[in-house]
Design brief:
The complex is a heterodimer of chains A (305) and B (211). By secondary structure, chain A is an alpha/beta fold. Chain A has twelve helices and 14 strands. In chain A, strands 6-7-8-3-9-10 form a six-stranded mixed β-sheet, sandwiched between helices. Chain A has a four-stranded antiparallel β-sheet with strand order 2-1-4-5, with helices on one face. In chain A, strands 12-13-11-14 form a four-stranded antiparallel β-sheet. The longest helix of chain A has 14 residues. Chain B is mostly helical and 211 residues long. Chain B has one domain. Chain B contains seven helices and no strands. The radius of gyration of chain B is 19 Å and the shape is globular. Classes of the chains: A alpha/beta (305), B mainly alpha (211).
Chain lengths: 305, 211
C-alpha cells in the first residue's frame, strides 16, 4: 500500500526530500559550546543531485543524521517522497542507499560477508548486481576490508548502498580524502545513477569542484545556518566578483556590496546582478564567481547583526 | 534481524580462534587437577560473555550509526543483540557439556551430578550478568561498560557476603537446605524473566540514544 503511494508520489513529482524549518540544538557540553542547526529548508527534486556544502563542523553530518533519524530533530518537518520520515521510517530506509563518513561493517569482514548480511537486511537485495559492482571496482570478494585503501573502502560502501536498487542516495563526504582518478569514477557513477528520472542523490562535500561537476542544486550551510540554497546555475550566475582599487571601493554604494575582501592589489567585492554592476562601476573588473569564492566570501556578508 | 545475527557471527568468527585457545587452556587446566565441572561451567560463562566483545567491535566500527541507515528499527537492533547472546549461551552450554562429559570420563566426576548442574548454574550466572551489563553498555558505551562489568561481577559476591555477615551479627536464621533448593528450582525462570526485563530496559535506553 505504502509502496504504491510512494510510487505515485514520485510520478506526481513529489520531491525525493523535502525539509521545512528543521532545527536541532545541542546542549552545551562540558568543554564545548552548544551547536545548533537552525531553520534548514530545502527540497531535492526527483532525478537531481543536491550538493551539501560547508566547512568542517558546519553541520553537514548533523543534517544527514537528522535525515536518518539517528538523532532526534527539535522542530520542523522531514519528508521523503511526500511521506513523513517518522511515520514511514522503515519503508523510506528500504528505498535509500546510505554512505556515512564513519560507520560501516567491522573491518575484519570481507565484501562477500557484507553482501550476505545485507542480502538478509534488504528484501530487494540484488546479489548479482552487488557482485558486478565489486567486479567493476576491482574489489576482491574475500579480502578483509581493513586491507583496502580509502578509495576502495568508499567503493565498497557505494556498492553496498546501490545493490538494493535504491531511489535515493544519501552520502556523507563520499569524495573526501580520495584521489582525483577515483573521485571522478565516483562522480561518473553518480551521473549514471540519476540517468533514471526517479533517482536522486544528496551528497555532502567540501570539495567545491566536485559540486561544480555534478550538483544540480546547492545547499550551503555555515555554522549551522543555511546561507544559500538553489539551482547551481542560478547561484553561480547570480553573483560576480568585482575587482577595484581601495578608492573606488570607498566610493561604492553600500547596498551593492554583499561581501568583500581586501588584498595587496585592492579590494575584491562580491556583488549580485552582474550586468548592472558592470555598467555602474566601469572602472572595475567584473569576473565570474566560483563556488569556492562564494564559500569564502558569503560568511563575511555585511548585514545587520 | 537474521542479518544482524549473521553479522555478529562474522564479526566474532575471528574471535573464535581466541576462544578455541581458551578452551584448550581450560581443558589443560582440568588435566592439572581442576574438576571437569569447574572447567565446563567456565566455558559456558565465557561463550555467553562473547556478546560483550561483539559490543566493542560494533563500537570500534561505529556499526550502530550505519545500522540505523538500514531498514532495521532500533528495537530490532537491541533484539538482535539479545538473541545473539542467547544463541551464544546455547552454544556455550553445548561446548561446556560436551567437554565436561569427555573430561568426566577421565576423572572421578559424575556428569549428571556434577557437570550438568554446574554448567546450568554457569549459564544462569552468565545470563544474570548479561542482564545487568547489556543495559549499562547501551547507556554508557563499551569502555565505561567494561569498568562497570567488573563492579557487576563483584556486586553479587559483596551482597551475599554482606548478607551472611548481617545474618551472623543479628543472629538471623539462614535458610535451610530444603528452602534453598526449592528456590533454586525457580532460579532459571527468575533469570530468564530478568533477561526479558533487561531487554526492555535496553530497548528503552537505545530508543532515545543519539548516534
Amino acid at each position: 500500500m505504502l509502496a504504491m503511494e510512494l510510487m505515485t508520489a514520485s510520478l506526481m513529482g513529489e520531491p525525493a526530500i523535502s525539509v521545512q524549518n528543521l532545527c536541532k540544538q545541542y546542549e552545551e557540553g562540558k568543554n564545548g559550546k552548544g551547536f545548533a542547526l537552525e531553520h534548514i529548508s530545502f527540497q531535492l527534486p526527483a532525478g537531481t543531485i543536491l550538493g551539501l556544502i560547508g566547512e568542517n563542523g558546519a553541520g553537514k553530518t548533523t543534517l544527514i543524521k537528522l535525515l536518518l533519524n539517528a538523532i532526534a530533530k527539535d522542530s520542523g518537518s522531514i519528508r521523503f517522497w511526500g511521506k513523513d520520515l517518522l511515520a514511514a521510517e522503515k519503508k523510506i530506509k528500504s528505498e535509500i542507499g546510505v554512505v556515512l563518513d564513519e560507520g560501516f561493517f567491522y573491518e575484519g569482514m570481507t565484501p562477500r560477508q557484507v553482501g550476505k548480511v545485507l542480502g538478509k537486511v534488504f528484501e530487494n537485495w540484488d546479489g548479482p548486481l552487488y557482485d558486478s559492482y565489486l567486479q567493476q571496482f576491482s574489489l576482491s570478494q574475500d579480502q578483509q576490508i581493513k586491507e583496502f585503501s580509502k578509495g576502495m573502502k568508499m567503493k565498497l560502501s557505494l556498492a553496498s548502498a546501490l545493490a538494493h536498487h535504491p531511489k535515493l542516495l544519501l552520502l556523507d563526504e563520499p569524495t573526501g580524502g580520495i584521489d582525483p582518478v577515483c573521485r571522478n569514477e565516483i562522480l561518473d557513477l553518480f551521473l549514471d545513477f540519476v540517468q533514471s528520472a526517479e533517482n536522486s542523490i544528496l551528497f555532502s562535500s567540501h570539495i567545491t569542484s566536485d559540486m561544480e561537476k555534478v550538483a544540480d542544486y546547492l545547499l550551503y550551510i555555515h555554522e549551522g545556518r543555511q546561507i544559500l540554497y538553489g539551482e547551481r546555475e542560478d547561484i553561480l550566475f547570480g553573483y560576480a566578483i568585482l575587482k577595484c582599487t581601495r578608492e573606488d571601493f570607498a566610493a561604492m554604494d553600500g547596498n551593492d556590496i554583499v561581501a568583500y575582501r581586501e588584498n595587496q592589489f585592492g579590494v575584491e567585492v562580491l556583488v549580485q546582478e552582474r550586468k548592472t554592476m558592470a555598467t555602474k562601476y566601469p572602472n572595475a573588473v567584473v569576473e565570474n564567481v566560483n563556488l569556492e569564492q562564494l564559500m569564502v566570501f558569503l560568511p563575511k556578508e555585511k548585514k545587520e547583526g | 534481524m537474521k542479518g544482524l545475527i549473521l553479522k555478529d557471527f562474522y564479526t566474532m568468527a575471528r574471535y573464535g580462534r581466541t576462544m578455541i585457545a581458551l578452551i584448550v587452556f581450560y581443558v589443560l587446566l582440568s588435566f592439572l587437577g581442576q574438576p571437569a565441572s569447574f572447567v565446563s561451567s567456565m566455558l559456558v560463562f565465557l561463550c555467553a560473555m562473547m556478546v560483550v566483545s561483539s559490543f566493542s567491535y560494533d563500537e570500534y566500527g561505529k556499526w550502530n550509526k550505519y545500522c540505523l541507515s538500514l531498514p532495521i528499527s532500533r528495537r530490532q537492533m537491541v533484539g538482535g543483540k539479545y538473541l545473539f547472546a542467547l544463541i551464544m549461551l546455547v552454544i556455550g552450554l553445548g561446548v561446556g557439556l560436551l567437554s565436561g562429559y569427555l573430561l568426566s570420563l577421565t576423572q572421578d566426576v559424575s556428569f549428571w551430578e556434577d557437570v550438568l548442574p554446574s554448567c546450568l548454574s554457569g549459564a544462569a550466572a552468565a545470563l544474570f550478568m548479561l542482564s545487568l551489563i547489556l543495559p549499562l553498555m547501551y547507556r554508557f558505551g563499551v569502555e565505561k561498560g567494561r569498568i562497570l562489568l567488573l563492579a557487576v561481577c563483584f556486586l553479587p559476591v559483596i551482597l551475599i557476603l554482606g548478607f551472611l555477615k548481617f545474618a551472623e551479627v543479628y543472629h538471623l536464621p539462614l535458610p535451610d537446605e530444603a528452602t534453598t533448593s526449592m528456590w533454586l528450582k525457580f532460579l532459571p525462570i527468575l533469570v530468564l524473566a530478568g533477561f526479558g526485563v533487561s531487554y526492555l530496559c535496553s530497548a528503552a535506553i537505545f530508543a532515545k540514544k543519539e548516534l
